[in-house]
Design brief:
alpha/beta; 13 helices; Rossmann fold; 367 residues; 20% strand
Length: 367
């Protein structure tokens, strides 16, 4: 595979060019406007941020992409899927409230927001990929209904995958509730009986008769359960939970296979901002201090090369004093391994290359 181009600009500004104008110049130089957006449905996959976390990307960045796409008569929307864990983005109503609270709304972004997997995370498209781990990916339907996929990613650390970049934004982020169950779990959901009120909502939403309610407490028969996760979304008191017990290396490979399901057969383009590089995911309702200084903005048609360029850029930075990373033992020259020693981010990258998603080798073009 030919070496891929990754375009980069730093976070410096001048009296005549601010950061939003630099982002516009970056994506134009990287070739985003070569895509035919005319009357095409274009999904911008983004993470709206869990309320309480302030490291997520500001809505201003997304508006730059929205305005460019709309200037070419594209039919654009911002999107994400509901979360598997209990939080403010577990269902579409709360998810939209969270997005609005964090500054994402049609007035600030210039387009509508669609939660891709519907009200309870069950509106999904089944995408055959015949991967090593995933045979049929479960992707939020609105994402699969789009003609074009653009990703806008906040690049940061992650406690399970090493870092959260473009592949994770697209793969994990586009999975429906059942899809996230498949990626995160080797096992099945379970019931916190101390929380369960015996309402039967989980039982009514189980298509496989795996749930019974006795003496106002639900239980799951794992021999019948297929791990779809609908019971998690149905429970009004968050008594049904995910084990999240998949090995990190397999989790990373499943994310690569889900990314393949999202991107195959469609025009796609990717932007990643290496700023506020917190040690953990934006799914946390808090963010720790950045582990390295802000680096800049990157863009490419190749999601693998883009993630590699961002990793290399972070690893070339000094560790910030007082950060979580500064407090860890440094057994490696890799900031992400030192931050979360039980992770190996390379498994996702290597599997993505094997799947033909992109190239680890890249030309870094500075603008």
């Amino acid at each position: 595979m030919a070496v891929s181009n990754v375009y980069y600009t730093n976070m410096r500004t001048t009296l005549t060019e601010n950061l939003l104008q630099k982002l516009e110049r970056l994506v134009k130089k990287a070739g985003m406007m070569d895509i035919d957006f005319n009357n095409k449905y274009t999904a911008i996959k983004i993470h709206f941020g869990e309320p309480g976390n302030l490291a997520y990307l500001r809505a201003n960045y997304s508006k730059v992409l929205v305005d460019l796409i709309r200037s070419q008569s594209g039919r654009v929307f911002l999107t994400d899927c509901n979360t598997l864990y209990v939080g403010r983005r577990k269902n579409a109503l709360d998810h939209l409230d969270a997005a609005y609270e964090n500054g994402y709304n049609p007035f600030t972004t210039g387009c509508h927001i669609i939660i891709a997997d519907g009200l309870k995370g069950t509106d999904e498209a089944l995408v055959p990929i015949d991967g090593e781990y995933v045979k049929e990916a479960k992707i939020g339907r609105a994402i699969m209904d789009a003609d074009i996929v653009i990703s806008l990613t906040h690049f940061k650390g992650h406690e399970a995958t090493g870092f959260g970049g473009t592949l994770k934004n697209l793969g994990m982020g586009s999975g429906s509730r059942a899809g996230k169950m498949e990626m995160h779990n080797a096992g099945k959901p379970f019931v916190h009986t101390d929380k369960c009120i015996g309402c039967g909502a989980c039982q009514r939403n189980c298509a496989h008769s795996a749930i019974t309610v006795l003496e106002r407490k639900a239980s799951i028969d794992t021999s019948k359960c297929v791990g779809c996760g609908r019971c998690i979304g149905a429970c009004p008191v968050d008594a049904v939970d995910s084990m999240c017990d998949e090995a990190n290396d397999i989790l990373n490979r499943k994310i690569a296979e889900y990314t393949l399901a999202v991107l195959k057969g469609r025009p796609n383009f990717h932007v990643s901002l290496v700023v506020d590089v917190s040690p953990n995911c934006d799914c946390h309702s808090e963010n720790d201090a950045p582990i390295v200084p802000n680096v800049g903005m990157f863009a490419s048609f190749d999601p693998v090369a883009l993630d590699m360029a961002c990793v290399d850029a972070v690893n070339s930075q000094p560790v910030l004093a007082g950060s979580f990373l500064a407090e860890q033992d440094h057994h490696s020259h890799d900031h992400f391994i030192n931050t979360h020693p039980d992770t190996n981010w390379e498994t996702c990258i290597d599997h993505a290359v094997k799947l033909g998603l992109g190239n680890k080798e890249y030309n870094l073009i500075t603008i």
